[in-house]
Amino acid sequence: MHPRRRAGVYSVGLVALLAAVMATASSIGPVPLAPTVVLQVVANGLAIPVGLTVTATGAALGQVPSVGIVWVHPFMFPVDATATAIVMTVRLPRIALGATVGFALAAAGVVMQGFFRNPMADPSIIGVSSGAATGAVCFIVLPGVLPAVVGLRAAAFAGALVTAGVVYAIATEGGHTPVATLLLAGVAVQTLLGAVTSYLLLQSGESMRRVVYWLMGHLDASTFDEALVTGSLGVVLVGVMYLYAGDLNALLLGEQEAQAVGVKVERTKQLLLATASVVTGAAVAVAGVIGFVGLIVPHAMRLLVGPDHRVLLPTSALAGATFLVAADTLARAGAAELPVGIVTAALGAPFFLYLLRKREVSEL
User: Fold this and answer.
1) Which CATH superfamily is domain 81-357 in?
2) CB-based burial of residue 333 (10 Å sphere; 0-12 exposed, 13-18 middle, 19+ buried)?
């Protein structure tokens, strides 16, 4: 079967699995809801555009008439208002954001592992997560340095992009960026930023709880707007990554071999590194530092679908979305809600050790 067709078949199954996990997650919480109630609430929220309205009151004054859209709700199930509020304002925004963040981190992990030709690579390997953490901690601990109008998420995103740019600039010489140098530069910058973050944590005072909670990774206080922005950016950039999946396959053979088959190596490396860094920075900016998603999910999917990035990239992204939604459901299912980063680490680390023990960590 052609790789793109295989990717489509696997993706349909994974989309169905993601939908089932999201529906189940919507019914779990301090106030349990039946899955049928959740589906009715979602159906009631659907609207179909059926026409336009034109308000001509301002036409006589030379103004342009305003145009509006007429929406019709095809379903009106009798659902309790409390259940509607729980699903639409609390659970679904959180689940949607979890799916988009997991989608982004898993896709970035696939690209980073292929880019570095190293199964131990993850989205934060060049310090993007550390840069985002430093930006966020600076915003929380040093409010006078960054004005409030910047916002926590903007500060984290800016920190991620600046870090990626600095690491790339350090590793690049004469228009060439050796992968080994990039890796070492990333480790060094990540270590330095870790020291800066630790120092700021010591100086955080009353802000320490907020800083630590953000660093653990969380999805609470989520909104549909955050999920929409992060998801739209993730889909677009993962689509760009997918266009270069064939080139990424060639890079696994080595840069000289890839160049011999027509791959523009340096341009491809720049584009893949930039897209993976932006996707990771956006995910970390809205959810904090969530580990192991970009490391474990690509491993598991590589064992299932093989190393071809034309299949591995879309399937890993969908599996990452499913994994993070399931992990966040576990995080909020107990008596005391946990940051989702704790759950992903608790699930991911033993699984990774299992792979190592069974010698099933894929060699790229």
Assistant:
1) ABC transporter involved in vitamin B12 uptake, BtuC (1.10.3470.10)
2) middle
